[in-house]
Amino acid sequence: MYQFTEGIVEAFKLIISLDPYLIGIVLLSLKVSGMAVLLSTIIGVPLGTYLGMKPEGKTGFISRVLYTLMGMPPVVAGLLIFMLISRRGPLGPLGILYTPTAMVTAQVFLALPIVVGLTMLAIRARGREVEETALTLGAAPMLTAWTVIRESRVSILGAIVTGFGRIIAEVGAVMIVGGNIQGQTRVMTTAIVLETSKGNFELAIGLGIVLLAISFIINSVLYRFQKGGGRHTW
Questions:
Q1: Does residue 105 sit within a domain?
Q2: Sign of the C-alpha dihedral computed for residues 41, 45, 47 and 51 taken in this order
Q3: Measuring CA to CA, which residue among 72, 33, 36 is closest to residue 210?
């Protein structure tokens, strides 16, 4: 019990003192996961909107594939990306293995199906009604799609946050393709595993506290947005 209490106290000391090693890991984690969720949003929201506006009977197979990918174990995703970008893989000449780029690629592979799938469901829930209303008013196809997205923005934001939560907390994929290299590819989750195995519990706990704080802040923003009924303007 004393060791646990002492670990927490020392962890807060590291956070308050802005320990350079800890801060570097946190910033790299946010950079990698932030870029991954941004790319997933740019690709996933339009694709999810397109699928959601299609008749459900025509997207049955795609939906099943998306649902399967949404539950893919991170280690499997990491293995697939590793095989693609390793020296003997088809993308080996790019030389991105054990780099942040490889980690972003793996995280996009995990987050994209979630953003696409949940956006599709959000659009399907109310998109048809909004689409018919917009078309009745003479809106062009692009304006109609934007209107559907805007009216479903709370649910779409939830899809994006869910995707971010999936990748910021995962460890298997980024460890496989990133290598957990200090100062280069070591993020919060992989550092927690490493420091725990080394017995550096204060740093592991500190990183865990920061990770939980980030998740709490992001979900609090989503909760406030949902509670407000999506009345915030874009």
A1: yes
A2: positive
A3: 33
Which residues does 60 contact at the CB level (< 8 Å), separation at least 6? none
In a domain, 98, yes or no: yes
Instruction: Output the CA angle 192-94-117, nearest 5 degrees.
Output: 60
For residue 166, give Cα distances in angstroms to 92, 102, 108, 156.
Answer: 27, 17, 10, 15
94 membership: H or E segment, kind and range? none
Query: What are the angstrom distances between the C-alpha of 193 and each of 50, 60, 165, 175, 188?
Result: 40, 39, 18, 10, 9
Q: Which pTM was predicted?
A: 0.87
- The Cα-based distances of 52 to 74, 109, 111, 116, 167 in angstroms read 26, 20, 18, 9, 24
Q: What is the pLDDT of residues 197-207, one digit of tens each?
A: 998 889 999 99
Q: What is the CATH number of the domain that holds 210?
A: 1.10.3720.10
- Model pLDDT, residue 234: 41
Residue 233 falls inside a structural domain: no
E strands, 16-169, are: none
Q: One-letter amino acid identity for 88?
A: R
pLDDT at residue 10, as a whole number: 85
For the segment 159-188, what is each residue's pLDDT rounded down to a tens digit? 999 999 999 999 999 999 999 999 999 999
Of 162, 131, 164, 165, the residue nearest 147 (C-alpha):
131
Range of the domain at 145: 2-227
Q: Is residue 232 part of a domain?
A: no
Q: How many domains does the chain have?
A: 1
H/E segment holding residue 58: none
